[in-house]
Amino acid sequence: MVSNGPKRVAILVSGGGSNMVKLVESMTGDHPARAVLVGSNDHGAGGLKRAEEMGVPTFAVDHRPFGKDRAAFEAELIRHLDAARPDILCLAGFMRILTPTFINHYAGRMLNIHPSLLPKYKGLHTHARALEAGDSEAGCTVHEVTAELDDGPILGQARVPVVPDDTPETLAARVLAEEHKLYPAMLRKFAEAL
Ligand code: GAR
User: Fold this and answer.
1) Is residue 46 in contact with ligand 1, taking CB distance under 6 Å?
2) Which atom of ligand 1 is nearest to the CA of 17?
3) Is 162 near ligand 1, meaning CB less than 6 Å away?
4) What is the pTM of this model?
């Protein structure tokens, strides 16, 4: 059941969480959603501290003690997430592969941002791969999460040029600046339609 009033948004991060910060900052005023929880697979993730500073509750479930038992790790994630009754789950630099069981649990309400123009460059090292291929443009994609990795209906993309002497790092920075605009815009649209 979808919440009456503002949609409740949980966000999962693994790293610094710059996309998470932009999402949280966007959900104010007449925005149709509010951030209710930020979680991570790493207690030391910089994103957790940044969320706390913004007054958003956080949790972490370290994936390492679970070893290969993804189901048990995900059961713990779900336990924390569902206690906050999220209507929407945003992956924002969450670097664990999720099983179909987890994905089905949040079917139709889970979004991801990926740093490439999907369907190009699923997986890791997207910027290096775009440079190696000699692409003249790169970008990012917000999509609904389905059981296939970096697949699912595309909600929006943003493009940037590749410039001479780009390195994976300079290209990543140019793409990240677009991610910070694209993800909040797509979340807003998604929350309005839910
Ligand atoms: C972002 O570039 C995001 O697109 C990417 O990780 C970075 C996280 O940065 N996500 C993936 O590669 C997912 N496969 P952030 O922690 O500063 O938002």
Assistant:
1) no
2) 16
3) no
4) 0.97
